Amino acid sequence: MHRRALLLSALGAMAAQPAWAWPERAIRLLVAYPPGGLSDETARLLAQSLGRHLNVPVLVENRSGAGGVAAMEALARAAPDGYTLCYSAISPLVIAPRLSRPAYDAQNDFAPLAWVMDTPILLLARADLKPDSLPELLALARKKPGQLRWASSGQATTGHLVLEQLKLAADVDIVHVPYKGGGQQLNDALSGQFEVLSSNLGPQQLQYVRQGRLKALAVGAARRLAVLPEVPTLGELGYAQANLVSSFGVFAPRGITSGRSRRLNEALNAAIREPEFQQRLIASGNRSAGGSARDFELWIEHERQRQQQVLSVLEGAVR
């Protein structure tokens, strides 16, 4: 009886603490974008804090390409043990599956862990471009169909979707110039490689606007931003469907255990609430999110349904 009692006690202890005994080694955080942009900067700050809360190193690995698709393809191939995660916008799960053929099932291959932040989409123009407002820019596009060039951080990204929504609503022909991320896109904007760009709002973008090197035409946000109070939202200008933010979060491969998913969600929420993380986002005009994994999953599905019309049009054009 004594041996049996010891065995039951040991088994009970093992059952009671596996979620909290984990993780036992370093975690790899894939970042779906190249170094140097806001997404990379935010991911690295998040990784440092997450590592402190989990008591293991969290190693950042940039896996950019195809607007986030390359990183999500790598995540889909990873073991669902919680040791490989991905920080990405939701566009590879909402937009990319309709416009390309990624090597994953967007609705079944991933487990959303935590909604980290929402980033307004900022519409910027070259400082020397004559139009000083979005209505003036669209009027110019009507006069010169196919001559204005509009850059985004990639095909099938939220910035690309903003452009396509505007083209559809305003009935204009503007050339899309996709990049592999935000850093090179900003450099090329300053050197005059194109006329307009849609970009996630970040410290560098704010600096260039304040210096007069780029001019802000509109922002995708629920209301005007405290950091750019003079810039109207796309909703104010009559383009509610284009008034989009870019939502970012952390994902695991589908199949991760509920215990590990809960552990990661709690640690991620603790990291998001840290003052340094909050201050970094507020200073750059971004909004922290947080909440349960289910909250994030429902938001992704909401955005998937909301973009059906424009995605159907784009899907037909691609095919």
Structure description:
By secondary structure, the protein is an alpha/beta fold. It folds into 2 domains: 26-119 and 246-318, D-Maltodextrin-Binding Protein, domain 2 (3-Layer(aba) Sandwich); 120-242, Periplasmic binding protein-like II (D-Maltodextrin-Binding Protein, domain 2, 3-Layer(aba) Sandwich), CATH 3.40.190.10. It contains 14 helices and 10 strands. Helix 8 links the parallel strand 5 (149-152) and strand 6. Helix 3 crosses helix 11. The longest helix is centred in the first third of the chain and has 17 residues, at 38-54.
Radius of gyration: 21 Å
CATH superfamily of the largest domain: Bordetella uptake gene, domain 1
Helix segment tally: 14
How many β-strands, per DSSP?
Answer: 10
N- to C-terminal distance: 71 Å
How much helix, percentage-wise, in residues?
40-55%
Helix and strand content put the structural class at: alpha/beta
In one word, what is the shape? globular
CATH architecture of the largest domain: 3-Layer(aba) Sandwich
What is the fold-level CATH name, i.e. the topology of the largest domain? Answer: D-Maltodextrin-Binding Protein, domain 2
Broad CATH class of the largest domain: Alpha Beta
* Sequence stretches where pLDDT stays below 50 over 5 or more residues: 5-17
Strand content: 15-25%
Largest sheet, if any?
Answer: 10 strands, mixed
Mean pLDDT: 90
| Topology order in helix (H) and strand (E) letters | HHEHEHEHHEHEHEHEHEEHHEHH
Number of domains: 2
